[in-house]
Design a protein that fits this description.
By secondary structure, the chain is mostly helical. Helix content is 51%, strand content 4%. It contains 10 helices and 4 strands; from the N terminus they run E-E-H-H-H-H-H-H-H-H-E-H-H-E. The radius of gyration is 16 Å and the shape is globular.
């Protein structure tokens, strides 16, 4: 895989959906808990799969999981799980579907404890600030970090499923808590941290 393709991080290649995701979302700091929940649900669904598979099913997940409304997903039942196992727009994995509901309930408990899920995630970072890396090649980008190790460990202790350190690191990259755009990427400086 090339480090840069058309001036962008090479992992997104030339697929239009991937390029748009890279340019408009990946690495942009997300403060909105609803969007953080969406990424938590999608990244958890990705476990064992590649991200483009989930990205192509994003609208299916939006339909299946009630527009990612956290409280509504938290109220879903085993009846909903049985219905969603036959839903064509998502990965038909009973454990992942059930974990989305469990994770929604736990997400709400974290919101109550920390004021927001954003505050919770940021509390694991030095100085409560996102990290901006200065990588020049894709090989330099890690698959986990001390922050993702600590967050996933704490979340597993709280009962979250399908959120190990590698999935957690991907979540942190996607939501901008970690900016891993390569130094020469055209999107490198497009997302400002405040």
């Amino acid at each position: 895989m090339e480090d840069l393709v058309n001036g962008r991080c090479g992992w997104c290649g030339t697929d239009e959906l991937y390029v748009t995701y890279h340019d408009k979302e990946w690495g942009k700091l997300v403060k909105d808990d609803k969007i953080l929940f969406e990424f938590l649900l999608l990244e958890s669904a990705q476990a064992g799969l590649n991200w483009i598979t989930i990205l192509k099913k994003r609208n299916g997940y939006r339909a299946a999981f009630l527009n990612f409304e956290i409280e509504e997903v938290a109220r879903m039942t085993d009846e909903d799980v049985n219905r969603l196992i036959h839903f064509d727009g998502i990965v038909k994995n009973r454990l992942k579907i059930k974990s989305a509901i469990t994770n929604a309930r736990l997400f709400i408990s974290i919101q109550k404890e920390f004021g927001s899920f954003f505050n919770y995630i940021l509390s694991f970072f030095p100085g409560n600030r996102p990290i901006v890396h200065t990588f020049h090649t894709l090989n330099e980008i890690p698959v986990s970090s001390p922050e993702s190790d600590a967050i996933s460990k704490d979340m597993r202790k709280r009962g979250f499923k399908f959120f190990g350190t590698t999935i957690c690191y991907a979540f942190l990259q996607a939501t901008g808590f970690v900016n891993d755009h390569l130094c020469d990427c055209i999107c490198r400086n497009s997302f400002k941290y405040k």
